[in-house]
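User: I'm curious whether this sequence folds into something compact or stays loose and floppy. Could you predict its structure so I can see for myself?
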Amino acid sequence: MKNIWHLAVVSYKDSIRKRILWVFLIFSLILIVFAVALEVMSLERSSVFDKTAGLEATGAEATEEKMAKDMGIASIAIFAVLILLFTASSQIPEEVEGRTLYTLLTFPIRRRYYVLGKFLGQLLVVLTIVPAMAVILYVALFLKYGTLDAVMLKGIYALVLQLAVLASVSVMVSTFAPVNFNIIFCFILFLAGHTTGYIGTAARETSVLPARWGLTLLYTVIPNFEYFNLSSELALKTNVSFPYLLSVSLYALVYIASMLTIAAAVFRDRQV
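Assistant: Here's the prediction. I'll summarize afterward.
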């Protein structure tokens, strides 16, 4: 366990030192502040944008606050994904190309522990950048509207789980693929993961058996990132139940464990 934690800390420090991380992080913080401070697309004249049925907030200020939250959380999600993809995808390939991996593997550490350490390092990155951006969003919302939304914390927690799943996929792909392929693949997977509902519907409605099998396979394999999306609950200020958060957590744990198992198996047989 000590070796795993050491690898995680080394991976975390290496990621934090990357310049691109700070570029994305600073830009995201600026965008979050602007999303709250500026009365962009004021919803007193934007009923077109209000797609959430049953929205109880009636005043322009309430709808503007909803837009600020939506834009703020969307900014956190987008930039956190970009940061994660650029850091997680390069961890193993850079050490293979730089020959530092050979030195690490001479120590008494198994390859599966090496993979686990790399994943935990990226999880630490997520647990650093997401709370940092969330704090800025909370402060900006409080200064402008004087409110603190407890439901938003649950949305941030679900986002962290979503990013942890994506990190496990990126680490798995990095055991056999170059950085550029990893970034593109994981970004497409992230987008596809938010359309799994449509894939499931298409699988149920199609009458062509091979197409149904293929769509069902995609629906099963692709992570259901929409499962982690609590934007409707945040907009309505609806309480998110503990059983739902527990089920989301278990889903994330199972998917992460699956990805890391595959990663360990692939990396074990890789000649480096």
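Summary: Residues 111-145 form the longest helix (35 residues). The chain has twelve helices and no strands.
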